[in-house]
């Protein structure tokens, strides 16, 4: 253990040194290693059986340290029929991560989407509680001690801050949330447990509802560790992200940017891509500026393969690599910001002192990720 840690420290010092000299000589450094040099745990992305061997795998392995499975860990894939569990694909993702020195954010346990019809049809309280517990015990238990985090509940709110009308809320009311967290904690005491949500990017009833819910959960001693802000953003509506991340951090929990992309209203023009560059830098800086922010995960590599293409066809070009897998301006902006140590933020100048300040473990107390 000690040897591993000091080896990691050595590698981190080396990265720090590379970054410190980067002003004079351009040095290739991964987004992940640069995030770590800025005191964070990781820069992440999505992975699944389709991209493990696809044309993006070089970028995925080279740039990122934390991975969220895009499909194969969702309820409809793990337990499509009651009591019949399918772990072939999720195991393949876990094994890919371990073979490549990467970590996993499990995604996701209780979500209204991608659940099988048999779950949606449940009307009995006891039955649904048992089903939730069983699903969480099996899924979380299978990867116990092997994942960094789990998105325990996902997207529980409507835009107006009321609870979404999912089977979980209809049958159990708000109680499904403490139940899910308590079950997950028991199934893997080492995983960081997240509540994950979108449109927490600007002031309004939705983020207010999230903050109120977290306070209620904390008052009931519910084992919740962190808030994930998906940050599926629309270009032109990004400026408030840093301020809202600070509000989420005011709960005392960890926070993370969990599914970052910034979609552009079609037609995509050079001017709009230019604006997107600045927006990517702003979000990155927003995380650097908040000590509680553990890291940023993208939701995809190439614009060609983004979920936005099908889900939101009026928009395009949401990611940091174009359709030909070339780095876009957005990549350059994030890379540049991380090299400078988030200039203008409280992390500025951190690049030289980070290794000393944090020792073997970061503020977030978890094992460090490989470079
Ligand atoms: C999306 C995937 O990217 C799609 O391919 C799939 O069809 C649906 O799910 N919020 C989430 C993610 O938490 O799980 C979603 O991922 C995107 C929105």
Automatic annotation (TrEMBL):
It comes from the Eukaryota. Gene3D superfamilies: Glycosidases. GO terms for molecular function: endo-1,4-beta-xylanase activity. Pfam families: Glyco_hydro_10. One of its GO terms (biological process) is xylan catabolic process. Keywords: Carbohydrate metabolism, Glycosidase, Hydrolase, Polysaccharide degradation, Signal, Xylan degradation. It is an enzyme of class 3 (hydrolase). Residues 1-29 form the signal peptide. Residues 28-337 form the GH10 domain. It comes from Ephemerocybe angulata. The active site is at 259 (nucleophile). This is Beta-xylanase. InterPro entries: GH, GH10, GH10_AS, GH10_dom. Its EC number is 3.2.1.8. Belongs to the glycosyl hydrolase 10 (cellulase F) family. It catalyses: Endohydrolysis of (1->4)-beta-D-xylosidic linkages in xylans.
């Amino acid at each position: 253990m000690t040897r591993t840690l000091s080896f990691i420290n050595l590698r981190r010092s080396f990265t720090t040194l590379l970054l410190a000299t980067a002003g004079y000589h351009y040095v290739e450094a991964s987004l992940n290693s640069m995030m770590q040099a800025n005191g964070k745990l990781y820069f992440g992305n999505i992975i699944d059986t389709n991209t493990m061997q696809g044309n993006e795998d070089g970028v995925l392995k080279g740039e990122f340290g934390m991975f969220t499975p895009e499909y194969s860990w969702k309820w409809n894939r793990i337990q499509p029929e009651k009591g019949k569990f399918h772990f072939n694909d999720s195991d393949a993702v876990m094994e890919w991560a371990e073979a490549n020195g990467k970590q996993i954010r499990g995604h996701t346990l209780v979500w209204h989407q991608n659940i099988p019809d048999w779950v949606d049809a449940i009307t009995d309280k006891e039955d649904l509680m048992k089903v939730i517990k069983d699903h969480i015990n099996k899924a979380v238990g299978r990867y116990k001690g092997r994942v960094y985090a789990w998105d325990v509940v996902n997207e529980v709110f409507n835009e107006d801050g009321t609870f979404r009308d999912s089977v979980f809320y209809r049958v159990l009311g708000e109680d499904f949330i403490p139940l899910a967290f308590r079950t997950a904690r028991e199934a893997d005491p080492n995983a960081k447990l997240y509540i994950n949500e979108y449109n927490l990017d600007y002031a309004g009833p939705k983020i207010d509802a999230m903050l109120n819910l977290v306070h209620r959960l904390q008052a009931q001693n519910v084992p919740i560790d962190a808030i994930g802000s998906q940050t599926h953003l629309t270009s032109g509506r990004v400026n408030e992200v840093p301020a809202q991340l600070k509000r989420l951090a005011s709960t005392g929990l960890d926070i993370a940017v969990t599914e970052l992309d910034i979609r552009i209203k079609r037609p995509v023009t050079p001017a709009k891509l230019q604006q997107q560059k600045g927006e990517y830098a702003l979000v990155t800086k927003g995380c650097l500026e908040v000590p509680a922010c553990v890291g940023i995960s993208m939701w995809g590599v190439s614009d060609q393969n983004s979920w936005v293409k099908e889900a939101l066809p009026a928009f395009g070009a949401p990611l940091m690599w174009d359709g030909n897998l070339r780095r876009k301006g957005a990549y350059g902006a994030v890379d540049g910001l991380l090299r400078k140590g988030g200039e203008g933020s409280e992390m500025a100048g951190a690049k030289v002192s980070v290794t000393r300040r944090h020792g073997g473990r970061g503020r977030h107390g978890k094992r460090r990720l490989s470079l």
